[in-house]
Amino acid sequence: MAHMIEVKNLHKSFGAFEVLKGIDQSVDNHEVLVIIGPSGSGKSTMLRCINHLEEPTSGEVYLDGELITESNLDTVRTKMGMVFQQFNLFPHMTVLENCTVGPIKVKGESEEEAKDRALKMLKRVGLEEKAEAYPKSLSGGQQQRVAIARALTMEPEVMLFDEPTSALDPEMVGEVLDVMKALARDGMAMVVVTHEMGFAKEVADKVIFIDGGVVVEQGTPKDVIENPQEERTKNFLSSVLI
Amino acid sequence: MELYWKGFLIACKGIPTTVWVSLVALTIGSLLGLLLALGSQGKNRILKGIIKVYIDVVRGTPMIVQALVFAYGIPQFLQANGIMFKWAYLVIPAVLCCGLNSAAYMAEVVRSGIQAVDKGQMEAARSLGMSKKMAMRLVIIPQAVKIILPAFCNEFVTLIKETAVLSYVGVIEILRRGALWNAQSFETFPAYIGVALAYMLLTIPLTKIIGRYEKKLKAQEA
């Protein structure tokens, strides 16, 4: 059976600067892959290449065995939910409209159907009562939970998280991580770029450490985080765990 | 004093014409301006080149010259080449000229508005599977409109004043009303003071409203 996501020999350059120097990875159904690494290591770029927000310079990305190309991109993206560091909620729409605009306009669902599911997803992230509110009236943590609900309302096969807690005040990190942990328990396939080592230890099936555009070390959280073999991994972990 | 009041009232008779010419020009200007802005952000290089030339020509020449070319130049050129052409009403080339002129300025306003929308918005929309066009329509443009609304209203104020040049191509708007009365009565000072007051009757309240909206917008952001 094909992997849920497969990345083959992925390269990405910005001008003369090569950010990713050949990445091969895969994620299976119900699997959580956590990507860690210092800033500028290419970890966010790798995530953004998966749904082609950054177009890979070379290499391939497959979803369910299907090669992602320019022509199937919009369809493929409906199956990959994305959560951003800066939330990126649509400020001119209510929380509910943020969640339903994709299903209605992209997937052609009826308003009722989309609304029903959006409310279920908002309940899942604990924000059902905020459905009619506008994003700017919500706290950062609440906004990020809405962003997760928005992605979930599209019924994706896999969720991509790009440093979802990095822009949050410390006291709001927990509520977002809790939602993500619950998602993982429910069997959602996830790719998560994060600095939250506690989350990685608890939830990840596999952790990869990226530095200088290559995967330096990979394995279970126990292997990579608790018992790293490479010097670079050790250095990085000692700097973030303090 | 009475003469000034009379001059003001006569000039005010031109207000409807000035206002509707400005409104039609603003409509043409914003629709075409939006298209120009989208085109200049697109991928088609030929289209981009044409748009750039258009904007350079319009912004690089006085509107009175453009108006004269439109109203008198084009008919003469066509007639000299054996095509019988005459504007049915001179207000048509006048409105067209103002609209096309405004479009070049609106294109810049719209472009800067679109660019002021956070780029994460486009990414979020695309990651939901929206095409670029759909994302523009549903996500980017509604937010850009809010940003450019003050500049948009300022363009309306500018247009109201600029349409004065149309009195030179036979449109009987505010300035023309005053000029005609002056020609007849030789009350030059009251006539043109009346004209100035009539313009201010339009522009000052509008400017006030814009100022208030901008303040509100700033308060929202804070």
Summarize the structure in words.
The complex is a heterodimer of chains A (242) and B (222). Chain A is an alpha/beta fold and 242 residues long. Helices cover 39% and strands 25% of the residues of chain A. In chain A, strand 4 and strand 5 form a beta hairpin. In chain A, helix 5 runs parallel beside helix 6 (170-185). Chain B has 222 residues and is mostly helical. In chain B, 83% of the residues lie in helices and 0% in strands. Chain B is built from 9 helices and no strands. Chain B has helices at residues 2-12, 15-41, 45-60, 63-80, 91-116, 119-127, 132-162, 174-185, 188-221. In chain B, helix 2 (15-41) packs antiparallel against helix 7, helix 4 (63-80) packs across helix 5 and helix 5 (91-116) crosses helix 7. Chain B starts with a helix and ends with a helix. The A-B interface holds A 51, 53, 74-75, 77-78, 80-82, 84, 86, 88-92, 101-102, 105-107, 147, 150-151, 154 and B 118, 120-121, 123-131, 134, 138-139, 142-143, 146.
Order of H and E elements of chain A: EEEHEEHEHHHEHEHEEHH
Mean pLDDT of chain A: 95
Please give the largest β-sheet of chain A: 6 strands, mixed
Number-wise, the strands of chain A total 10
Q: N-to-C terminal Cα separation of chain B, in Å?
A: 49 Å
- Count of helices of chain B? 9
Largest interface: A-B, 25 and 18 residues
Helix- and strand-based class of chain A?
A: alpha/beta
Would you summarize the structure shown here?
The complex is a heterodimer of chains A (242) and B (222). Chain A has 242 residues and is an alpha/beta fold.
Name the descriptors:
heterodimer; A: 242 residues; alpha/beta; four-stranded antiparallel β-sheet; globular; B: 222 residues; mainly alpha; 9 helices
